[in-house]
Amino acid sequence: MYKHTKFWLGLLSLSSLVLMVSCSTGNSDNISQNQVPSSTTEVAQANPCAGKNPCAAKNSSKNPCAGKNPCAAKNPCASKDSSKNPCAAKNPCAGKDNSKNPCAGKLTSVGGPLAQELQGKPVLVDVFATWCAGCKNIAPTLSQLKQDYADKVNFVVLDVTDQGKVKETQAQAEKLGLSKFLEANKSKTSTVAIVDPATGNILTMFKNNPNKADYTKVIDAALAQN
Prior knowledge:
Layout: H1 2-35, H2 40-46, E1 123-128, H3 133-148, E2 154-159, H4 163-176, H5 179-185, E3 191-195, E4 202-207, H6 212-225
Parallel strand pairs: 1-2
Antiparallel strand pairs: 1-3, 3-4
Helix pairs in contact: 4-5
């Protein structure tokens, strides 16, 4: 009887062992299935970065990013030093109105040779008015020039103080060959021009300039040529 009991106990133990192994294998399969995604689709859905770049791997006809930036062309005037920049040298006479443009409205000639009485000496022409502040500013300079060049320069004053004076001055200007100059400058008081009487060419013209050296430089150069 003892032997039969031992036999059945051994058989029972063996059955329990087989059952335990079977359960262990089943649980392992379940864990593996829960941890590993079943397909690449699930991987793509889980990856927030899986969306394709709309600008990548496309030909230029369909790629929205393939077109070149129309602003990408470099500005030939940008980021260059003035020695190489083709746009660096600005025209001092460009884009300015005539009231401020240093190149506008300036005569280069009074229209021809001046009167015989003015020949042989440079002629300094002063557009003057008693009410003109600029005229008062340059008066000491012109006075000094008259003293320094009394016998070397002809000094002409075109007085435009009022209508009466303008009429007298117009007659004077016509006689001296300065009508064109007066017409162009009768509203520009404190204007001073130095003229070559033989040609009528204006050697220089100043506006409210009290700097004596600027005048003497031109006058001396004109005298040296005579």
